[in-house]
Write a structure and sequence with these properties.
Bound molecules: S-adenosylmethionine
Radius of gyration: 15 Å
Structural class: alpha/beta
Distance between the termini: 22 Å
Largest sheet: 7 strands, mixed
Number of domains: 1
Number of strands: 9
CATH class: Alpha Beta
């Protein structure tokens, strides 16, 4: 990362990727979007996430928004990087997950990158993003000890939209805590 990017973390929860991205930014900004479902994550709130950002010294680079990733409250082409960790599978219907992929393609800037880590449906995400014109879409299983990384853990890395100025690279490995 150059440090100047606008980064979006979908279903940011208490900020694992959001804060990790913010630590790599200089003039850039990291935005977390979440509905703060307590069934998905205990103690889930915008306040808790902002407090974590403060503890990590990145509060000046972090913003949290309340909203649904199926209909994001952002203009088209707003973000250089979109990330999500173990969040999209919480949308239980296929239509909702497809709507999320449409929204990712909409808010991503030309030349932007997407990194998704999830416990299921990742092949579907990859296919959906390809159908929406993203390029260099790959998905793969994470390596890890079986008890910590079940075999169906896969990720999409380096999905860029068609653009001659596209920058390569993945913003970082997404592992299991
Ligand atoms: C298991 S938590 C993961 C949180 C965080 N990404 C992490 O790695 O710690 C899933 C998160 O997705 C959020 N979420 C679920 N459905 C959502 C939706 N439709 N729009 C936005 N956030 C959603 C939940 O509120 C929760 O914070």
């Amino acid at each position: 990362m150059a440090g100047t990017e606008a980064v979006l973390d979908l279903g940011c929860g208490r900020g694992l990727l959001l804060i990790g991205a913010a630590r790599r930014l200089t003039s850039g900004r990291a935005t977390g979007l979440d509905l703060w479902n307590s069934e998905d994550l205990t103690g889930n709130s915008a306040e808790a996430t902002l407090a974590n950002a403060g503890r990590e010294g990145v509060a000046d680079r972090v913003e949290v928004r309340t909203g649904d990733m199926r209909k994001m409250p952002f203009p088209d082409a707003s973000f250089d990087v979109v990330v999500s960790n173990v969040a999209i599978h919480n949308i239980y219907d296929r239509e909702g997950r497809e709507a999320t992929m449409s929204e990712i393609a909409r808010v991503l800037k030309p030349g932007g990158h997407v990194v998704i880590h999830d416990i299921r449906y990742v092949g579907d995400y990859a296919a959906a993003l390809k159908r929406r014109g993203l390029t260099d879409v790959t998905s793969r299983r994470l390596q890890g000890r079986p008890r910590r990384a079940p075999a169906d853990h896969v990720r999409i890395a380096q999905a860029g939209r068609r653009d001659r100025t596209r920058r390569g690279g993945v913003i970082g490995r997404v592992g299991l805590a």
